[in-house]
Amino acid sequence: MTDDSTSAGAAAQPQTQAPRRRRSGRRHEILEIAGRQIAEKGYAEATVRDIGEAAGILSGSLYRHFDSKDTILEELLRTYLDDLLVAYEAVTPASEGSASAALRKLIQIGVRAVHENRVEVTILHDNYKFLLRNPRFTFIQAMERQIMTYWLRVLEEGRATGEFSRELNPRVASLAIMGGIETMVRWFDPRGQFSHEEVAEQYATLHLNGLTA
Amino acid sequence: MTDDSTSAGAAAQPQTQAPRRRRSGRRHEILEIAGRQIAEKGYAEATVRDIGEAAGILSGSLYRHFDSKDTILEELLRTYLDDLLVAYEAVTPASEGSASAALRKLIQIGVRAVHENRVEVTILHDNYKFLLRNPRFTFIQAMERQIMTYWLRVLEEGRATGEFSRELNPRVASLAIMGGIETMVRWFDPRGQFSHEEVAEQYATLHLNGLTA
DNA sequence: GTCTATACCTAGATAGAC
DNA sequence: GTCTATCTAGGTATAGAC
Lengths: 213, 213
Hints:
The structure is a homodimer.
Chain A: H1 26-41, H2 48-55, H3 59-62, H4 69-91, H5 99-116, H6 118-126, H7 128-133, H8 138-160, H9 170-182, H10 196-211
Chain A binds a DNA duplex through residues 26, 44, 47-49, 57-65, 68-69.
């Protein structure tokens, strides 16, 4: 079950034992290697033998670091989604200015995530059906629902103030925009014609023009 | 290889032997059942035993109808993409009116495909990585590239005539729009708040506003 | 913490009777 | 065209020596 809740109580914790974020070095290194393998080949297709080989050890040795292959995947995705949620959360108030400014930020965060966390976004995108059907990964749905609320809040506010068109349903518009961002993982090349900032700017132009009445 | 070119010539064809579209009934029925299984569970996860069971036969019996599991998948996707290409091809000239009208049609075709060919679109979306990495399915890339040229032609024409904004790169804009359409497979519910025609209309509104300068 | 060796399972596919 | 029975390959995971 790999339940890392601090059930035994934190009071009894001895001196130097960092309970979380142990960053054992090797463990973290293997996690990154595994992520690259899974992103490149797909979760089912990247075997534990592949991951072991890429890390310079045999598959059996992986199980000294992780309970199972699923554990590796879960750790990768949880870490990423935690950070993404924090980033989105910070922009949602939209207090500082217009809804347009807030939407621009949402788009920038999404596009940047594709660029900077390519491995995780790729894994999430390519294995979505598997992840949704697996009880172990239901946290993903919950976190994405949370992200959706941040988008909705911005679009609804823009619609309420008349900044955005009344014709457009906030949920449909959000999904249309987010879908376009997510599928970037399939074509975006950081060494191509456009940097990720430029792509974000184009997306923002397109959708802000599109939404404003 | 499944090469169905009419190499032997059509002249020597005997009377009642329909060479293509044999629609043997049972074969076609199994194909639809298999499609549903694969769309629901994922290609790797839908086993030949699952497919057989859903069809009321044992897995071994499937091989009287199809050479392999891959054959089933290939036939499903080829048929769908063939039809989709034809639909897109018909609209591309954009001769009849403005680029806006043409783009609206492209969007309608894409959205309608998600609705009417849900099984195939779902399979294509969920197993994209696998399909790209498998030499047997390279035809998919070729056909999608062809579809992309249709979109590009419309967006470039609109940009050339000044109908669409110069700031937007046609390829980036196409991908943003198409990505939003494709990911509909993950949320669109025909019995939900909006029909597929209404979703298409919203998408068209959003993106036509977004593109027009 | 890694290796050797292997258990155990499930997948796609096949042979031959009916 | 379906069933019975089974092969073979390759997957995750484990046990125990080093």
